Every structure is written in structure tokens, then in C-alpha cells.
């Protein structure tokens, strides 16, 4: 081999990357299997996480915490992690510890339902929160690890190839899990059903850890000195405006987001197969609409896509008020996936541009922390209001959906239409989005823009 050639240079056939280097090929194969097992875990936890809480008769405030507490803890953790770790010793060690703890907490979550009634609800919430936390908090190290493994000029093609495989994995796994549990609903199920799903998710994550352990980590480049946290406040006002506005978008969604699955189970009496199909429909909508939004953003800009999709997202809760049949929900969830795919695509690229080139990691961490705090506070507000709002149409959750929609329109009119413009200097928006190794691989903070349980 030519000594002047980069050992990870692209020229071949493994997702667009050359397979002539055995070290690189082995690392990418193990990474692919890691992602497949991680998406099996995601399909199970995202489908049955809230369903398990409903089965345990968790109060509304506890259900709200399921989607927001992991995000809050992870936001703070990601903000502080650079000050207490040394990536110069390798990122792999931190990632392995994080995902191993994630699998352990999944097994513990499976056991929580067997505790006495006064303990099991809050034990389940806390254990599930720690499961999400340990997966999220090391996502930055994992992204940097993959970024060093895959050359920049081929990342778009390679991660697009990976993401298609991972999306299909999630679809198939969610549907299979739904078929297995098709005989059960909240009224007929017992905790063994959920324990089996969480144990299967824990086993999948453990296999993911084993694949990661065998994966090659390139030498860590010279670590840049981190800027001081307070320097973010001296950054441009447009960045601060964007950070607050993006956080408010996610916050208004989080008011009602965790309660859509509650609505399907308690009010529409979905069995677990219908619930799995609802999850699969959202993923399918994301897959189908993403190429369209990528081309649209390349032509008209990320800001335009954000404005259009936030307006569409504001309309999302309204049809659920009148929908009562499973196939209605599946269609609406497909529409939800289409809307969010465009927002997530352009919002990530816009965030990179708004953060600038100096202390980018800190600026992004600041935006993530703002979002985490906002989502947590709004989720708690939603949990408080879910049992106190007046009944409209047939239930109080309809009032919550309507409130969330009105607040989304309000944020759209006050903030989103005033977004500053940035010039795109990267290759294509779609390629940039596919450069996120964490997309469809973990619950990661930037994955799908901080959605909480398939935010609606």
C-alpha cells in the first residue's frame, strides 16, 4: 500500500468506503452491528416505555418525567463532561462505560415492575431516566470517534447507507414486537410482557457493547483547549436568539408529547400491535420525507425549511382531537414523521452555522442545555395540567393537545419568522445531516431534535 495514502481514505464498497484496509473494514462492520443492535433497543423502549408506565398506573407527572428527565440530566452532563474527562486518553473507554451502564439500567428497569406498588412507579421512572442519561451523555465522544474513523468527504454517502439500514431495523423490530404482544392491552397485560421487552432491549444493548469493544479506535488527535462556559454569553445575539427559540419549540412540543401514547392506550384502547404500528408509521414518514426536505433545503435554505416545518408542526396535535381509529393515528403519525424530518434536518445544520467556528462544542452544548431545561419545565407543566384542564370534546388530553398547538403557533409568530439568515457553506444539507453518526443510533440529544417519545 502506498505510504502516502491515508489509511482510512475512501475508494470502495462498504457503504461507499474502501474495503481494502482490513482494520478499517473490521471497524466499520463492528460499528454497523453496534448500530443495528442499538436500534433494536430503541424500537423496544420507544414503543413500550410509556405503555409500561401506563400499565403501572403512573400519575401524569411521572409520565411527563419519562420523556424530560433523561434529557435534562443529559443536557447538564454534556455541558460539564468536557471539564471532568480527558479525551486524550481515548473516547472509546468513556463510550463503553456509558453504554454498558445503559444496558445495566435496562435490566434494572425490567425488574422495577415486580417491586411493591408504592415503590415500583417511581423506581421505574428513575431507572428509565438513568438508562436514557447514560446513553445520551457519551454521545459526543461517540460522534467524535466515528468522525475520526470515517473520512469527511465520504461521510454523507456512508451514513446515509447506515441510516437506511438502521431505519429498516427499527421498523421491522417495532412491528415484530407488536405482533408478539398483539394479544395484550393495558387491561389484559401483565408486567412479564414489559419485563421481556426491556430484557430483550438490554440484551441488544449488551451485544452492542460487545461490538463496540471490538471496534478499532483511530489515534485521538490533539485535543483543543475548551473555552470557558461564560464565553458563550459573549457570542452573537443571533445565536442566543436561536438557542432560546429552538428550546421553546421543543418545550411547547413537550407539553403534550409524552401523552399521545397515553391517549392511544387509555382513551383509544390500543392493543400493543396498534401501538407498535403507530411508532413504525412515524419512522416511515421520516424515511420517506427526508430526501425531499434535503433537496428543498439545498434549494431554498435551512431557514425556509425551519419556518415551513414549524408551521406544520404547530398543526400536528389538532387532528388527534377528532381521531378515534387506529388507522387514523397511523396516518397522522406518518404526517408527524414527515414534518419532523424536515425540521430536524435543517435545524441541525442551522445550529452548526449559528454556533460559529470558535468554541463550537461549547456553544452547541449551551444550546442543548437550554433545550433540556426548557423541555423539562414544559413537560412538568404538561404533567400538572393533564389532570386539571377542562374537558373538551371527550377528555382532558384534548385540551392539552389544543394548548400545545396554540403555544406552537405563538412561538412561530414571535420567534421563528424572525430567525436570522446564515449562508450555507457546506456541501449539501442532506449530506451534513447524514454526517451525524448518532442519527437513528441513540436517543442522542441532537437526534431528531430532542424529541421525547416520538414527539407530536
Helix and strand topology:
Elements (H helix, E strand, L loop, with lengths): L21 H34 L4 H25 L7 H21 L4 H21 L1 H11 L5 H26 L10 H23 L23 H18 L4 H9 L4 H29 L1 H14 L1 H4 L5 H30 L4 H26 L10 H19 L14 H6 L22
Helix pairs in contact: 1-6, 1-7, 1-10, 2-4, 2-14, 3-4, 3-7, 6-10, 8-13, 8-14, 8-15, 10-11, 10-13, 11-13, 11-15
Structure, described:
The chain has 456 residues and is mainly α. It has a single domain (24-217, 234-450), classed as Growth Hormone, Chain: A, CATH 1.20.1250.20. It contains 16 helices and no strands. Helix 3 packs antiparallel against helix 7, helix 8 (237-254) runs antiparallel to helix 15 (396-414) and helix 11 (302-315) runs antiparallel to helix 13 (326-355). Residues 1-12, 223-227 and 435-453 have low confidence and may be disordered.
